[in-house]
Amino acid sequence: MSVVDTDVVVIGAGLMGHGIAQCAAQAGCRVRLWGMSREEVESALARIGASVAKLHAKGRVADPPAAVVARIEPVTEFERCAGAGIYVESVVEKLDVKQEIFRRLDALAPAPALLASNTSTIPISRLAAATSHPDRCLGMHFTSPVPLMPVAEVIRTAATSDDAFARGVAFVRALGKEPIAVHKDLPGFVFNRVNLPSTVEAIRLVELGVASVEDIDKAMRLGFGRPMGPFETADMVGLDTGYYALCSLHAESGDDKFRPPDLLRRQVEAGHLGRKTGRGWYQYDAAGERIGMAPPP
Ligand SMILES: NC(=O)c1ccc[n+]([C@@H]2O[C@H](COP(=O)([O-])OP(=O)(O)OC[C@H]3O[C@@H](n4cnc5c(N)ncnc54)[C@H](O)[C@@H]3O)[C@@H](O)[C@H]2O)c1
């Protein structure tokens, strides 16, 4: 990884953004983590501190936790993000919000800066179109929880330069993840095109009364060796994030296999977003530990 690529800005301090910032800091990068409010970035930093301490205690991170956290500067003013080598955008899965971020970054990130998006479903070319340098734009799609998952997709558009793509791949490797090269900018890329239809089907089976949430999760864990079933995963990811991803993928592809089920929409409208709100498909205590099934939605 070149020196310029160790100067990292992560835009978005939510579930994914704080995890990406943590991995970059663990890899020795200097990181600026931009969030919408002081509370958000401070809470992100506290979560990072707790996670690095756990990983350090298990011997998975060599550096002392305080040294890792000290590499991350929390920022809330966009202008403070100027002049980095790699930008990773990880804000809410909404096209207009991400396009606006890319438009603003374009002015702050002169060559050779890379502009990467952690979008789950939005074509990278739509974000690159908001910039004057589509050759330096690419997708970098991590999975949750970022510090524990050993893989990330790197997505190129028709305009992404070979150099930008190679730097993206090298950055992902430097973060300790196996890069999956995605050569076409198809909405949903690889992970979600394969995974989301099975989540949609699982929710439809519950809607039809074919099987319970708990039994479908059990089936996928025991029958297919998955560490978590689709509902357990959805609660961790956030039902809103999954719903927005499906809305975007359905709109982009027109394919009914991605149409968000009504049951999922109702959960999101009711504010039952999974672990982060204490209730999704299951219920959680204040520490995020599962305490049982949620009442039927
Ligand atoms: N959750 C997952 O498992 C997962 C996995 C891979 C990729 N992603 C993608 O990562 C991105 C972030 O998802 P997340 O799970 O961290 O969600 P999250 O809800 O935890 O965080 C969303 C972030 O977006 C910010 N935000 C909301 N509205 C904004 C606005 N108008 N302007 C700027 N920032 C705004 C919020 O402040 C927050 O920091 C999404 O594109 C999502 O599709 C999520």
What's the layout of helices and strands?
Layout: E1 7-11, H1 15-26, E2 30-34, H2 38-57, H3 65-70, E3 72-75, E4 86-89, H4 95-108, E5 114-117, H5 124-128, E6 137-142, E7 151-155, H6 162-174, E8 178-182, H7 191-207, H8 213-224, H9 230-237, H10 239-253, H11 262-269, E9 282-284, E10 290-293
Parallel strand pairs: 1-2, 1-4, 2-3, 4-5, 5-6, 7-8
Antiparallel strand pairs: 6-7, 9-10
Helix pairs in contact: 1-2
The chain binds nicotinamide-adenine-dinucleotide.
What would your notes on this structure say?
The protein has 297 residues and is of the alpha/beta class. It has two domains: 3-182, NAD(P)-binding Rossmann-like Domain (Rossmann fold, 3-Layer(aba) Sandwich); 192-292, N-(1-d-carboxylethyl)-l-norvaline Dehydrogenase, domain 2 (Orthogonal Bundle), CATH 1.10.1040. Helices cover 44% and strands 15% of the residues. It has helices at 15-26, 38-57, 65-70, 95-108, 124-128, 162-174, 191-207, 213-224, 230-237, 239-253, 262-269; strands at 7-11, 30-34, 72-75, 86-89, 114-117, 137-142, 151-155, 178-182, 282-284, 290-293. It has an eight-stranded mixed beta sheet, sandwiched between helices. The chain has a two-stranded antiparallel sheet with strand order 9-10. A hairpin with an 8-residue loop joins strand 6 (137-142) and strand 7 (151-155). The radius of gyration is 19 Å and the shape is globular. Bound molecules: nicotinamide-adenine-dinucleotide (NAD). Nicotinamide-adenine-dinucleotide (NAD) binds at residues 12-17, 35-36, 40, 90-93, 97, 118-120, 141-144, 237-238, 241, 245. Residues 12-17, 35-36, 40, 90-93, 97, 118-120, 141-144, 237-238, 241, 245 line the site of nicotinamide-adenine-dinucleotide.
